[in-house]
Design brief:
Its main location: membrane. The protein is an all-alpha fold. It has a single domain (about 40-294), classed as MetI-like (MetI-like fold), CATH 1.10.3720. It has 11 helices and no strands. The protein has helices spanning about 1-35, 40-45, 60-90, 95-110, 110-125, 135-155, 160-170, 175-200, 205-210, 240-250, 260-294. Helix 5 crosses helix 6 (about 135-155) and helix 10 runs antiparallel to helix 11. The longest helix has about 35 residues, at about 260-294. It is globular. The N and C termini lie far apart (about 50 Å).
Length: about 290
Amino acid sequence: MHAKRMDKIATGVLYAISGIIVAILASLILYILVRGLPHVSWHFLTGKSSSYQAGGGIGIQLYNSFFLLVITLVISFPLSLGAGIYLSEYAKKGRLTNLVRTCIEILSSLPSVVVGLFGYLVFVVQFKYGFSIISGALALTVFNLPQMTRNIEDSLQHVHHTQREAGLALGLSRWETVIHVVVPEALPSIITGVVLASGRIFGEAAALIYTAGQSAPALDWSNWNIFSVTSPISIFRQAETLAVHIWKVNSEGTIPDSIEVSAGSAAVLLIFILIFNFGARKLGSYLHKKLTSA
C-alpha cells in the first residue's frame, strides 16, 4: 500500500510539473498573439518599414528572413550531412573522433552573440564581405552546424544494422549502402531535424546584428544582378531580418507606433516558428508512413 501511495504521489507531481510547463508556454504564446495579431494586416506583411513615421510594414524583413534561411541551409546542410555520415558510418573510436565530437559540443554551447562577433571579425572584416546576407549565412552555419550534425548522426544510427547488412549482401559497396539504403531510411528524421533547425535560424537575431546588418534597402524586383545592393537575390547586400527588426524597433524607439510594430512582428515571427515546429512533426510522420508503406 505504501509503495502504491508513493507511486500515485510521484505520478501526480510529474503531471503537475508537466502542466506548469505547458501552462507557461501556452500563456507566453497567447500573450504574444493577443497583443500582436490585431496589428497584423496584409499591408503590414507586405509594406515597407518606416524609421520615423507610423504605419510601416515588415515585407522586406520577412523576405530577408526567408532568403537568409535558404542560403544558410544551402551552406550548412551538405556540411552537416557529410559530418553526420562520417561520425555515424565511418568514424572509429580514437583521438580524431573524440576531437571532432568535442568541437561539436563546444560549438553547440557557444552563445549566439559570440558567434555574431566571430562572424563580424572573420566574414565582415577579414573576408571583406561587409554586412551582408553571405556573412550572416556563414555565421548562422557556424551556429547551426552542431545541432544539424548531431541530428543527422542520431538519425543514421537509429537505422537498424540489418539494413546495412542487407545492402552489403546485395553486393553494394559501403558508400553505396549508405547513400542508397541508410540515408533514405533515415530521411524522415533528417528532414524533421532540418525543419526544426530552420525555425531556430528564422528566429535568430544576436548573430545577425553583427553580420547581416541592421538596414533593409528597398528591393528592385526587376534587378536580378546578384552583386547589386537592390537585387532581391543578391547575397552581398545588407539584410535586416524580422528578428533583428524587432530588436531594432525596441532599442531605437524612433517609430511613433513602435509598440504596435514590435507586437505585430513578434506575433508573425512566433507563428512562423510554430509552423516550422508543428510542420516538422507532420512532415516526418508523413514521410515515415510513405516510406514504410512503399
